Amino acid sequence: MPAPLRKLTEAPDIWPPPGTSPASTDMQGWGVTIWRGVCGTCPRCAKAPIFNGYLKVHPVCTSCSAPLGDMPSDDAPPYIAMLVVLHVLAFFVVMIFRYGWQPSPYAYGAMLVALVAACMVALRMAKGATIAILLKLGLKRAVLN
Fold this sequence. Notes:
This protein is an all-alpha fold. It has four helices and no strands.
């Protein structure tokens, strides 16, 4: 007798679920998986979004039931986003202090707004990529009793 089907809001205890065929839980290669995460779609099926808002993650994929909400992507995305954005910011810091570039106060304000926008975009992309990597590796958040 086959196992009862789970609701789409329930995540399996382990990923991939036991008793499933490997073909049903296979994921694409690393590049495709990470790209799907960066784009904000499910890393496994690419049919449903990862996010339910700006950074809130769906508990499970609405299409393939992959446990997206159980991936422990807590601290890695902010560090990745800061690493990327601050390297871009370093170019402007070098231009200002090394070469004596004197932008107007309006230009400083525009750079600040652009920096905040870049941080927000990079954070969402980094979180999607981190969830994709963790799902590909099969690492889920530990369940506490």
